[in-house]
Amino acid sequence: MTQKKTPDFEQAARRAEALRSEIAQHNHRYYVLDAPVVSDAEYDRLMNELIGIEQAHPDLVTPESPTQRVGAQPLAAFGSLRHTVPMRSLGNAFDPEDIQAFDKRVSDLLAGAGMLAPGGQVEYVAELKFDGLAVSLRYEQGRLTRAATRGDGQTGEDITSNIRTLRSVPLKLIGRYPDVLEVRGEVLMNRADFERLNQAQQARGEKVFVNPRNAAAGSLRQLDPRITATRPLRFFAYGWGEIRLVNRGQVELFLQEAGDADMPCDTHAGMLEWFESLGLPVSAERKVVRGADGMLGFYAAVGAGRAGLPFDIDGVVYKVNELAAQEVLGYVARAPRYAIAHKFPAQEETTLLLGIDVQVGRTGAITPVARLKPVFVGGVTVTNATLHNDDEIRRKDVRIGDTVVVRRAGDVIPEIVGPVLELRPPDAALFVMPSHCPVCGSAIERPEDEAISRCTGGLFCAAQRKQSLTHAAGRKALDIEGLGEKLVDQLVESGRVKSIADLFTLTAEEVAAYDRMGRKSAENLVAALEAARKPPLGRLLYALGIRHVGESTARDLALRFGSIEAVMAADEAALLQVNDVGPVVAGSILRFFAEQHNRDVVEALSRAGVHAVPPEAPSGNNQRLAGRTLVLTGTMPNWTRDEATRHILAAGGKVSGSVSKKTAYVVAGEDAGSKLAKAQELGVPVLDEQGLKALLDMAD
Description:
- The chain is 37% helix and 20% strand.
- The chain is α+β, with helices and mostly antiparallel strands.
- It folds into six domains: 7-70, Helix Hairpins (Orthogonal Bundle); 110-343, 2-Layer Sandwich (D-amino Acid Aminotransferase, Chain A, domain 1), CATH 3.30.470.30; 348-423, CATH 2.40.50.140; 458-531, DNA polymerase, domain 1; 537-607, Orthogonal Bundle (DNA polymerase, domain 1), CATH 1.10.150; 620-695, BRCT domain (Rossmann fold, 3-Layer(aba) Sandwich).
- The strands form six sheets. Strands 14, 15, 16, 17, 18, 19 and 20 form a seven-stranded antiparallel β-sheet that branches. The protein has a five-stranded mixed β-sheet with strand order 2-13-10-3-9.
- The chain is globular.
- The two termini are 51 Å apart.
- Pfam families: BRCT, DNA_ligase_aden, DNA_ligase_ZBD, HHH_2, HHH_5, OB_DNA_ligase.
- Zn(2+) binds at residues 437, 440, 461.
């Protein structure tokens, strides 16, 4: 019930608004400017007064009130949000020569466009490359309405409830703002806050986090926003997506009216200053520089002071400052031509190589893995590192007992650079690849002309079985929602599921008995299995995990043979008639179906009621693309790639992943990359979505 607006109510409303404004200013000074002007006790007094007013007058509570940052009710799962403007990644540079080459490319392009005088230097904004989680915040009429992770660049997870708990993120912008503003930036955690969080986690007997980035990502992706609200997360803005004035035309007009020099809109640096004027946090560690020398000077200065920063970074970023120049430079593939990330060298440490184990992959690949004496490298404690294969171990001359140099390449993947030979002990032992699989005991063989050794156990091997089931349940295969790795582990380890076919005999009662599986989750999984009993033939072939058979090849096999029995009966000559199937792929298919246990799985699937749906044979007027091969690249405005592929196949055409002289057409959408360039180089005709529809006689 709405409260009557008595004089007391009006007075309370004015006081609440004043308190909200004052607390917001204190939050900004504390979390953004790092310059508080009141004590914690005074801040708490103001907050408690506001809480008291809102409790007495519930109608006065607003979504932007600082009291609402405690977090909403837990979510069942994250929804998805499509980015209005894609969130693109950056190309990487590692050496001074890379930066000089980048500067030359930019200078040449701008000079060619008449935007740079001969001998002139390009102006760049140099910023920190934060080691956190990229997010996009959307403000409408100045109010935060939604937030999403980067995701795949096109679609991210809806983390609005969680972002609202971050005190460095304004719930309402100040000053003059457009009708719609999408702000891109990074969520991270200071190292000191990270240490305190881990101490608290340990005291409660809960999981500790590996590094600040891991802690930030885990905190932001909590289904319970009330947990996120307790985590010391921070946000820094560095870019934007959509900026729109619904009723007033171009944003440039708005910015010019809003204050000329105080709010410039023709440079990247100006946009960051504008963000600050709106109350958005922007890192002060940024600088406008000129040319390659300016960029490298900033890089050196930041590198020297890196340890003194309160948070982790893994490099710096350079962006052409002039926005008009950014527009001219445009994009290549999914990265802008006007920006580049300059990564710091991988951090290295030495430690002892205690032993070498082997891991078994989904296709039976045997990968040697080094067991290391724990060492802190690049912000994480490393205990294992891949050694890739037997040849790599021999090439690096790594032996058990060696002191080895460990590096995190690109600050991500631990690898062994090599041994410190001066410290090699007399009893350092050579690694010998085991002759039998450590999981199932089957023989390990190394196929001729291959660097990888493999377990021959196939679906008998529990290690391969787990990964095969996870692969089969994937979105591009049988798309069995709810069958995650944890449940697969339990199903295999209990002996209940030995092959894909066994999945389709599960009951809700059985599934509900497993760890972390409630009745509703079990029923949902069984419903997903029921929906997967009639998969397209191509998806079923892909789900089997045949080596070298990706989704495109599986689809081509389905089109050529029409049934799984026909694929199983095909000889090499028949297989070689399939698009993109050569001797290696054909041999892999033949070996797979020569194994009786694989044929048994196919038969068991049929007995369990799994019957593949054959692709529709092109006929009549649908033969428009018969015998023609098309390549898809980039993002189309209306059709997904799967939809476009389905229409092409229905018209008798083929879809390939690579461009050659035999390609009939390349269909290019937004962010088309190297395939478009290859088509232009070979003179292959290029179509957009409308051109494809016209070709299919489906034009709007």
